[in-house]
Amino acid sequence: MDATLLKSILRRFKIADYPYIIENWKSLSKEFSDVNLKHVKKADFVDMVMKKFKHKSNPALAIAELDILYLQKYSNRKLWKVLTVDVIPEGDSNNLSTVAEFENRLRKEVRSYLNAQVRCIEHQNTYWIRIAVKDAKNDWALPSVVYITHVPNTNYLMVTGLKATHKDYVLQSLVTVLNGHRVVDSHLSGRCLVSLMRLVLNKHSQGASLSFGGSPRPVIEETLPENVYNENHIEKRNRDNFVAENYGLAKLPRLEKIVYKLDTTFKGSSHVPGMAGSDRPFHCQVKFEGPSVLEGLRSLTAAGLAALPMKEHLAQDRNTTHNTDNTDYDKSERDIALPSGVAPNAAFAYYVDMFVVIPMVWTLIGELWQSYKQSKTISKPYSDIPAIDVLDDKKQPRRGDKPSKLKRRRADRRILKNGTTKQKLDGVDNKQKPKSRRKKSDTSREDGQKSGNADAKQTSTSDHKDDDSDTSKRGEINSGSTLKTGD
Amino acid sequence: MSVKLKSPSVQRTSRTPWRSKRFTRTPITRSLGSVSYTGVSTRSRSVRNRRSSIERTPEEKSFNGLVLKTWHVYRLSPLYKFSHETSALRNYSRMLSGHLEAEYNVGMAVITENEKANMAVFSIVRGLQKSGREPEAIQIELKQKPIRGDAEARTVYTAILCCVGASDDVLEKVKQPFVLLPLMLSKGPVMLNRYLTSWLECQFDCSVHAAHFSPLSLSWMVAIWVGSEAESTKPVMLKYKVPSEVEGLDHITLNINSKDCKVLWDCIHSTEDKTCHKKEVVTFVQALEAHFYHHFQINISAMPLCMIGTPIAVAESDGKIKIFTPEHVHQILGLVTEVILETSIEL
């Protein structure tokens, strides 16, 4: 059975992969030192490996390693599902710091439920786990294999090949080893493992901030012939700017499918007046399919098939199975089933990220205003400050007024009327200024940086929380957008 | 020097030298099938539905071979000197078997042993006609007889030639010795289909073309079929193909609850009305697209409809249909025949 399994795995590889096998297959690396791969045929290579394999003491280990090598190379041939483990936050004495410890612990747990072989390999800071479950009835049958990828110190598992009969046992073992209390389906699946990891682990650096982190998209410039003129080039430019600001310039992660479940009332009543007053939910499911759906949705906007501004709830973490016209959802609802194919908070964070961009802009404006205030109070020497008029809100210069000389003359006249001298005017003590204004300027001078940081902190936590306190800001800044909490 | 061919029966306009109407226009109204069949008992439809759970009429039983299979739809021009008599059908079976053998001997096509057929059987399918003027449907089965043993021959390929619900105008135009069987449903390997179509073209001087359903035809289908009563909970599906200039996204699919869709259709079209107007169909589809637009701001109406699904049938733009219930076979095939006759060139 081992020999047949090994042959089947070897035949899956292409001839061009043989150097990769020789370099990375640790179980048989010594035996391969003298191998010449020039003009080698598949059958010859398989026979050679089988001969060297016969003398192996631990064949199961070698098979597992080869299988994981194949999966690392061709992970896009499997459909991966993302699961989230709710880890108990209290400190645990069982700190599984190495792969070997993790493997031993997992093997104990799995073997208590199933007759299975467990193998873990660490590759590029990721644990690749292979659990081969043997069928109790037929010893000669090939085992059903479950592959799991786990990034240490995170809550996420990418699983493929999990059958219903083994599902509970395998997941229970993993939950015990990771010190969690339950496993939740993240409703995220796809064929590109790297994209799934990127979506799940880099939730808060999606969208516009992808320009600074991810791999850049090749910019293709249209070259039109001389006698062809694009009449809508301004609209096209606006659309391209919108896309670049909201989706970023980098390549988006690959997802094959995004599904939305809508339970809202019918919204096409302009065409069908008979459905206008109906409160009955119109159950509908929308599926976007393609090799890279996120790129496709971005191209839809760029191609003009999607109206601007694009509906932000495409990226919002909206639980549409509970969606009604008045959506005022709590944080707890965000964790429930979301558009499958998109990770929970990543759904909100990455796609069209107004919620990151707007608070950043708001803090920037705040800081600019603070610095402007500082510059007004500090930059000029005291002797140059016309003491009363500029600082007095009531006497603001009107349009058409002459510059400060006129103000000074008026001030002189007032003071002379009151019996004070000019000298006093020049050396006006700042203490006579309104107290509230002085305090503000003092605090801004001393604690300018701290207040700015506090603002930034507040906005950053609001980004993470995505709470409704930001909605008012959204409403103010994006008056042109269709973002409404009641929608 | 140009030679002008004049036919006295054809009207010519002053503008063009050829016929004024080369293609028929798509109709503005269609009847929703007040069905009366010959060869089927004339019970009312509600009575028949009640009885269907207990016992089926023989004609509905025979439709089990049509149901739950994906058929490729072809359109045929009228067949010259096709006879429905038993002796003629036996003759055709013999000729077709010989033709298949000859094609295998030529050996041009790569065909697996499982897909080889060495026997052809022509038979009549009763009950598919809507009126007595229409010719009876013909079923052609290509079977593989085992070389050894007395096992039964295995059917490898099936084709059904029928005419369901053709209008009287069209039936009057097709006179003897021509026989109108415009709809061909085909299921099986591609090479066998090619052999059959080449033989039909040679034998009966007809032309066989794969049918394509336009987005408007698919809209007609989804609107009419949504209105029919069905017990199934299958959703109503509208699948749109995204233009190729949009990279990464291929299809957008809308799956709507069939009951909600029926409520919408009843708001647009009254149940008492036996004819369906084009405006109602367009309104129905536009309403669904508006509902989608409200949520996603995507102009799905700019994309072509490539597949529709209802609780009773599924149809694709490249000419595939699948029927789920035997009770609605006439309604479905009738609409498909109408659509095919509209797309063919006027005789």
TrEMBL record, chain A:
Q: Where is the composition biased (Basic and acidic residues)?
A: 391-404, 423-432, 462-476
UniProt subcellular location = Chromosome, Centromere; Nucleus
Q: Is Disulfide bond among this UniProt entry's keywords?
A: no
Keyword Nucleus applies:
yes
Q: Which organism is it from?
A: Paralvinella palmiformis
Q: Which UniProt keywords apply?
A: Centromere, Chromosome, Nucleus
Q: What is this protein called?
A: Uncharacterized protein
Q: Which domain of life is it from?
A: Eukaryota
Q: Where is the composition biased (Polar residues)?
A: 478-487
User: What is stated as this protein's family in its record?
Assistant: Belongs to the CENP-N/CHL4 family.
TrEMBL record, chain B:
Q: Which InterPro entries has this protein been placed in?
A: CENP-L
Spell out the subcellular localization from the entry.
Chromosome, Centromere; Nucleus
**Entry keyword set:** Centromere, Chromosome, Nucleus
Q: Which residues form the signal peptide?
A: none
What GO terms fall under cellular component here?
A: chromosome, centromeric region; nucleus
Region annotation (Disordered) ranges: 39-59
One family name in Pfam for this protein: CENP-L
> What main location does UniProt list?
nucleus
Please give the family membership noted in the entry. Answer: Belongs to the CENP-L/IML3 family.
Q: What is the protein name stated in its UniProt record?
A: Centromere protein L
Organism field: Paralvinella palmiformis
